[in-house]
Amino acid sequence: MATGDHGAAEAVTLEESVVGETKQEAHVADDYSPPSHSMEREKTNMEADEKASPMTPDGEEPTDEDKRHLRKVGEKLPVSAFLIAFVELCERFTYYGMGGLFQNYIQRPFDGSQGRGALGMGHQSATGLNLFFQLWAYVSPIIGAIIADQYLGKYVTILVFCVVYIVGLLILLLTSLPVSLAHGAGLGGFIAAAIIIGLGTGGIKSNIAPLIADQYKRRRMEVKTLPTGERVIIDPGVTIQRIYMIFYLCINCGSLSLLATPYMERDVGFWSAYLLCLLIFLCGLTVLLLGKKFYVVRPPEGSVITNAFRAIWMMIRYRSLDAPKPSYQERLGNAQVMKWDDHFVDELKRALIACKVFCFYPVYWVVYGQFSNNFVSQAGDMRGHGIPNDLMQNWDPIAIIVFVPIMDRILYPFLRKMKIRFPPINRITLGFWIGSLAMAYAAIVQHLIYSSGPCYKDPLCSASEDSSGTAQGNNVHIAIQTPAYMLIGISEIFASVTGLEYAYTKAPPSMKSFVQSIYLLTTACGSAIGMALVSVSVDPKIIWMFVGLSCASFVAGALFWFCFHHLNDREDELNEL
Fold first, then answer.
1. Is the distance from CB of 357 to CB of 504 less than 8 angstroms?
2. Do 133 and 248 meet the contact criterion of CB atoms below 8 Å apart?
3. What is the pLDDT of residues 54-85, one digit of tens each?
4. Helix, strand, coil shares of the chain as percentages rounded to 5?
5. Given 19, 57, 136, 223, which is the most exposed site by the fewest CB atoms within 10 A?
6. Are the CB atoms for 240 and 210 separated by under 8 Å?
7. SS (H, E, C) 436-485
């Protein structure tokens, strides 16, 4: 777990964390459930452990022997963490509720009536502009991180970028009105809105993920004896893992906005869906403002990021990771005064380890990005049977909402109870491989589409048009896509959630927003790769793109594990730096 704030504010006493036996039982929730064997057997085991080594007193940090034999548990989450999670839910409701419509908004022509289209730019242009929006939305977190870490702090930065976000939503809403589309304001308005909303998204995302983890104060492991007699380790890493599981659960509850907005798009118009997104975003902003008194708000750390870049330059110049340390320079006889100490350099080295781990993520994000663009177009190539083609995206968050509680409440506690390690590097690798399965399944679906009439490899030909002249696609039911979306959702639980957790726990306390933004930047890299693949995002080439992404994700997962599995053995060491 990362070291907390400097000074007295960092210390968390036993009284602050655990007040009374009754409250302690609430703190540990399901993780503190009694073991299945009898109390007598537990007592015998404890006596054997005592003879093997002296018992660590309650409230003390665990020894290496304790870490090998005692179960690790988490604590109850603070109320402020749930408030911030709700704010993120509202922001993601807005982001996915509008962004999930962009493919149709750009691809299909405006027909002057119900919202079946707007800009009429075709499949390739729609995919390209959609990926541009995603790329910009995940590059801009760098800006938000620098402002937060160096000038305003996370909370104030989030407020500022919320205002930016609202301006972009207003532009999108006004230019999507039928009168605006009829007068040609749609394209210019969309591009302006995409740039402004992308900037607002980035400023929020780079700061809200570390802000929610900041609400949890404990920074060191501690031994505790439960009322049942079982001795356990209160592990901040377990609690942080739970925080990000709940955080991601709220993200995907918010993304269920796509259960409503596609119908609003189809039956009323795009503008109605964008208006709903704006109203929900304002609800989140209200909670953010009213809940301020509950939040742990850390001040900015000054010139930390610029110091970090200076230190990295010294590492490159001297070809040593320890070169920026004042002690190292003293040994070389250099009398220059550093603006940092040796511990700052140790923290920076740990942050660089996290950033190095992220280098394979762009491949995963290319896979993940398919569900909001090419999967939507693929659904449009099939018979919808009354289901809008962009409604199918909801199977991704539904899978996450179903499986996150299973992982958090059943699988992970069971593995910890059985002393089976499932460290971050292994979880991320599994995420890559499940993403590979999703792409393989998408390729099979595409093959079924091309094998079906009436249009075969040209799914939206005139032969599939109904009496109103609307192309209905080939004779494959749209529901066959469901497993592809669900596999991507499950892969996110392992790859994306663990990435958020890793970015927080391995980042220096003063650079958490910045390291989070580096993690988010890998998403932008994935969008850039996706833009390079736009030329093959057409019939009948797209099937080979899915096959290629499946192979790439599997190989990337294997290489990721080969390069970084040794970090699993250093997990506790890195968390406690």
1. no
2. no
3. 678 878 888 888 888 888 888 888 899 999 99
4. 70, 5, 25
5. 57
6. no
7. HHHHHHHHHHHHHHHCCCCCCCCCCCHHHECCCCCECCEEEEHHHHHHHH
Q: Measure the CA–CA gap between 460 and 91, rounded to whole angstroms.
A: 35
The pTM of the full predicted model, rounded to 2 decimals, is 0.75
Task: Give the model confidence (pLDDT) of 167-198 as tens digits.
Answer: 999 999 999 999 999 888 989 999 999 999 99
The rounded distance, in Å, linking the Cα atoms of 383 and 53 is 68
Mean pLDDT of 96-119: 81
Same domain, 370 and 278: yes
Number of structural domains found in the chain? 2
H helix or E strand, kind and range, residue 329: helix 326-331
Domain boundary among 289, 318, 338: 338
Beta bridge partners of 118: 109
3-state secondary structure of 334: coil
- Domain end among 287, 313, 338: 338
Lookup result for tokens 């506690």: 413
Task: Tell me the residue range of the domain where 308 lies.
Answer: 304-338
- Cβ-proximal residues to 346 (8 Å cutoff; 6+ apart), any chain: 577
Contact yes or no for 261/100 (Cβ under 8 A) = yes
Locate the DSSP E strands across 140-239: 222-225, 231-234
HSE, side-chain direction, 13 A CA sphere, residue 528? 10
Could you tell me the CA-to-CA distances from 458 to 54, 471, 473, 515 in Å, in that order? 74, 11, 9, 45
Half-sphere exposure of 157 (CA within 13 A, CB side): 33
Q: Are 186 and 176 in contact (CB under 8 A)?
A: yes
Are residues 435 and 508 located together in one domain of the fold? yes
Same structural domain, 312 and 392: no
Residue bearing tokens 């595409």: 446
Judgement on whether residues 270 and 309 belong to the same structural domain of the protein: no
Q: What is the CATH number of the domain that holds 503?
A: 1.20.1250.20
Q: In terms of Cα–Cα distance, which of 433, 363, 415, 428 is closest to 565?
A: 428
Bridge-based pairing of strands 231-234 and 222-225 is antiparallel
**Range of lowest pLDDT (40-54, 282-296, 560-574):** 40-54
The H or E element that residue 73 is part of is strand 71-73
Strands 382-383 vs 474-477: parallel, antiparallel or unpaired: parallel
- E-strand ranges in 274-393 read 382-383
Classify residue 9: in a domain, yes or no: no
- Same domain for 390 and 276: yes
Instruction: Clarify whether residues 326 and 433 are in a common domain.
Output: no
Give the three-state DSSP class for 301: coil
Q: In sequence order, what DSSP letters do the residues of 83-126 get, joined into one string?
A: HHHHHHHHHHHHHHHHHTTHHHHHHSBP-SSSSS-BB--HHHHH
428 lies in some domain: yes
Asked if residue 199 belongs to a domain, the reply is yes
DSSP 213-237: HHT----S-EEEE-TTS-EEEE-HH
* Residue 283 and residue 183 share a domain: yes
Asked whether residue 334 is domain-assigned, the answer is yes
